[in-house]
Design brief:
Layout lengths: L1 E9 L10 E9 L4 H16 L22 E7 L17 E5 L15 E8 L12 E6 L8 E2 L8 E2 L1 H20 L3 E6 L25 E4 L2 E4 L4 E2 L14
Antiparallel strand pairs: 1-2, 1-3, 2-9, 3-4, 5-6, 5-11, 5-12, 7-8, 9-10
């Protein structure tokens, strides 16, 4: 079995690498065949650029123009499940890079602040005794453009909601999972390894127990959801370009 991190890297309009936006997917494959790895990268690309589930618009159409039109990549890294490190050695380069552009995304439109995103969450029902925090994952989609923001209804115009992009995200996630399964692959939740810790003494309270080390684990994805509220990803904020003083 192969295990890969598919890292979607979106170039910023500024051209500054630090302004790039990154989403990560963890995917198992039945083999390490190079053609199969390329097929997986193309499916992850299509999550953003292809219309899925009859929703009409690809996810890319909801991204603001803080994201450039060209120069995006899907980087495929081969990982060891137990350690989470790249193989055959730590720091190994991607085994495949899929380069793509946003074709036909439309003219530039007013965008929301670069920190504003919507969160696609997912979880597994496997292993009921494993803490739920180890069986959940998320991807933050953004920066967004205003065209992807709709009010909940005519009586609540004061509450903007990302309802347009939400339906596309769910349709795209379900389609990606199915398309990967058709190749014998699986989009999974990766619970990273933990090095363990000793008991922590506390004054006037019981000691916090020791936690044993554990290897990384994989869990199938059973549920997707997107809330009708925005999330803030502070690290995506761009530096100020001017300042008013008095």
């Amino acid at each position: 079995m192969g295990f890969y991190r598919a890292q979607a890297v979106f170039a910023a309009f500024t051209g500054i690498p630090a302004d790039a936006v990154v989403n990560s997917f963890h995917i198992t494959t039945p083999t390490d065949d190079a053609a199969l790895v390329e097929d997986v990268a193309e499916l992850v690309r299509d999550f953003y650029v292809a219309e899925k589930g009859g929703q009409g618009d690809p996810v890319a159409n909801y991204l603001g123009h803080a994201i450039a039109d060209v120069g995006h990549q899907i980087k495929m890294y081969k990982l060891a499940v137990a350690t989470g490190k790249t193989t055959p050695q730590e720091g190994a380069p991607p085994v495949h890079i899929e380069v793509f552009d946003f074709v036909g995304r439309g003219a530039a439109a007013n965008g929301l602040p670069s920190e504003v995103a919507v969160c696609l969450s997912y979880k597994s029902d496997e292993e009921p005794t494993v803490p739920m925090r180890q069986k959940r994952g998320r991807i933050y989609i953004g920066p967004l453009k205003i065209a992807g923001v709709l009010s909940a209804d005519a009586t609540r115009v004061e509450r903007p909601n990302p309802l347009g992009v939400n339906a596309n995200l769910i349709a795209g996630a379900v389609a990606l999972r199915a398309d990967l399964e058709a190749l014998g692959c699986e989009w999974v939740i990766y619970s990273r390894p933990y090095e363990g810790r000793d008991a922590i003494p506390r004054v006037g309270k019981p000691d916090l127990p020791a936690i044993p080390a554990r290897d990384g684990s994989l869990y199938r994805i059973d549920h997707f959801w997107v809330d009708d509220a925005f999330d803030t990803v502070r690290r995506r904020g761009q530096k100020a370009s001017s300042r008013l003083t008095a």
